[in-house]
Amino acid sequence: MKPYLKWTAISVGSIVAIAHIGVLGHLVRREPDRVQVPTINIPRGTPYSSYKIEAGEDGYTIEYKANDPAILESQKSLSLDKEKKGFFGRGGHENRREWRKDQFTMDGTRNLGGVGGDGEGKLTAKEEECLVADAGARSQGAMAGSSIAAGVGVPAVIGVPYVGWLAAGWVALLGGRIGSAAGSTVGSVFNDC
Prior knowledge:
This protein is of the alpha+beta class and 193 residues long. It has helices at residues 3-28, 125-157, 164-190, and strands at residues 50-56, 59-65, 72-84, 92-104. The strands form two sheets. A two-stranded antiparallel sheet has the order 1-2. A hairpin with a 7-residue loop joins strand 3 (72-84) and strand 4 (92-104). It is flat.
């Protein structure tokens, strides 16, 4: 082997070895004064979402509200100053001031103050009693309607060729729905709701 080829191979090998050691030293070395900031993945919601992020030495907290503000407000005012012209110049002066404040949701539905309750969104005792009575009446009505349909309607349609089994299922379901609606009506009458 020629001596210049041997020295060239040793030189190139030494340069590659030193470069590898330098790269490994660079990758292993850590800087203690560099603080890693946490990556925060903020959820994507509607265009009206709001976020509140608080970060400190102990960690961070995220408060997320979807569709915020859920209730929007609108204020309108009207001022009217008008001279009335009456018969033979007799009239008067009309001053009117009107002010209106509405709350509505994003889709434009006006808030009319709730359906009932005590003004804070809670049900009164009578409304809660009526709700429980309606649920029981619907359940009993559905059971009675299904039983009547199974005893009267199902035997009448089960003999239909090819689709009798399907028609029997429809009759049983329809009997349950009609019985539930009838039970709700009867229950509201008897419970004075």
